[in-house]
Amino acid sequence: MEINDIEIKPQETKEEVMNDIEVINEDDEVIEIPQEPVMKEKKPAKKFKEYYQDPEFKKKHLEKLKVKVMCECGTMISKGNKTNHFRTKKHIAGVTEANNRKRKEEEREKDIEKVIENALKKLVKENKIKLK
């Protein structure tokens, strides 16, 4: 059966038409056309409240919350207290101070680069060195 020989009737569905098609390769072997996979119904995801009722999950979760981490402001905090810590004056002041330090370091690096660049320009101008 050639593909051109297929007659599609308006009442036929795509699945019915696909079942009637046979593809034949050069060796006169019938090649099966894979059908579209059938989607399984998804189960609704469990809510945290439901997971937390499991004692093993609850124990692991509480252990995770107790883990100490270093905040960007320089303070050691527990993971469970991160949100509250981010609102404290200590955190805000520490982050501001860290940002100021970082900005000053970047400015110093730029100043050093400018000094080196000016020194090189001066040496080139005086013909003491040549740049390629």
Describe the structure.
The termini are far apart. The model has no long low-confidence stretch (mean pLDDT 80). By secondary structure, the chain is mainly alpha-helical. The chain is flat, with a radius of gyration of 35 Å. The protein has helices spanning 14-20, 48-52, 55-66, 82-86, 89-125, and strands at residues 23-24, 30-31, 68-70, 76-78. The strands form two sheets. The chain has a two-stranded antiparallel ribbon with strand order 1-2. Strands 3-4 form a two-stranded antiparallel ribbon. A hairpin with a 5-residue loop joins strand 1 and strand 2 (30-31).
User: What distance lies between the first and last C-alpha atoms, to the nearest angstrom?
Assistant: 74 Å
Question: Tell me about the biggest sheet?
Answer: 2 strands, antiparallel
Quaternary structure: single chain
Give the overall average pLDDT. Answer: 80
Helix content: 40-55%
List how many beta strands DSSP finds.
4
Please identify the structural class as seen in this structure: mainly alpha
Strand order of the largest sheet: 1-2
Q: What fraction of residues sit in β-strands?
A: 5-15%
The Cα radius of gyration reads 35 Å
Regions with pLDDT < 50 over 5+ consecutive residues? none
**Coarse morphology:** flat
Order of helices and strands: HEEHHEEHH
